[in-house]
Amino acid sequence: MAPLLQVKGLKTQFFTQDGIVHAVDGISYDVEEGETLGIVGESGCGKSVGVLSVMRLIPTPPGKIVAGEVLFQGRDMLKMSEEEVRQIRGNQMAMIFQDPMTSLNPVLTIGRQISEALELHLNMDKNQARTRTIELLEMVNIPGAAGRVDDYPHQFSGGMRQRVMIAMALSCNPKLLIADEPTTALDVTIQAQFVDIVKRLRDELSMSVIWITHDLGIVAGLAQRVAVMYAGHIVEMASVKDLYREPSHPYTLGLLGSIPRLDAERRSRLTPIEGLPPDLVGENRGCPFAPRCPYQKEHAIERCLQENPQLAPVGTGLKHQAACWFDVRRGMAR
What we know:
Layout: E1 5-16, E2 19-31, E3 36-40, H1 47-54, E4 63-72, E5 75-76, H2 82-88, E6 93-96, H3 100-103, H4 110-122, H5 126-139, H6 145-148, H7 158-169, E7 176-180, H8 188-205, E8 208-213, H9 216-220, E9 225-230, E10 233-239, H10 240-245, H11 250-257, H12 294-299, H13 302-306, E11 312-313, E12 321-322, E13 326-327, E14 332-333
Parallel strand pairs: 3-8, 3-9, 6-7, 7-8
Antiparallel strand pairs: 1-2, 1-4, 4-5, 9-10, 10-12, 11-12, 13-14
Helix pairs in contact: 4-5, 4-7, 5-7, 7-8
């Protein structure tokens, strides 16, 4: 059976006064039915642009999807008309955005904003949509949902607004939910509650999830597979267990070294990734991580500066892939 979503060679560019920004530069991945894929990386690496491209939400101009395929249930989203995409977006494929305050309309009640999708996609009348909206708010643990359905976004806390966003995204029982850094503005306790709600609803609704984050700690308990992005490229792809047990790209090692661990020695220090993220304006011939890579500094591998590596199997399994000219497991160039 074909995967629910197949992204193949996706490239998205922004045409600016300074030049062409290669925000997403040829990424490919699949999402199976019922699977959760985590996409991680630092700010500006192309995570959000990648999923916005999948949803056909890139502002044009200045942005443009210049190459690739996005096959959702076998149909290429990039070749569909705007009307066909609207029938899928918010219905079979939904998204939770990073900032709920700017994503929710401040002059409409939350009940109206949720029921609008029910009326549009499921042909419910206003009474049916209102009843279903209250059920959805109860599903995401909004206290006193029936009494809050006519409240406005500013009357909710940040965590409650994110719950409203979940209810809105799940209103039409989508097959794929995309969550774009939904816990960034929340404190740790609310983050944990939010993740638990998504996990519960994912299992209850047999839904696939793409979770975008810069926090490897969150995806550890949520996703089955992880794609690590850097400078518009996927530099490592693996199951969660393989990624944490045997990280195979220097950037992944850097990310894991920069997060606190309960099993670490008391005096061990977090290890920062030196240098700055690359400038994505213009073409880059070599590996984009080479200027910051500790192995490049130690071994001076000329190929890293001349040729950008593609994802290739590492270890014994074909499902663990990394894009690197240096074998970090054996400590030698490939």
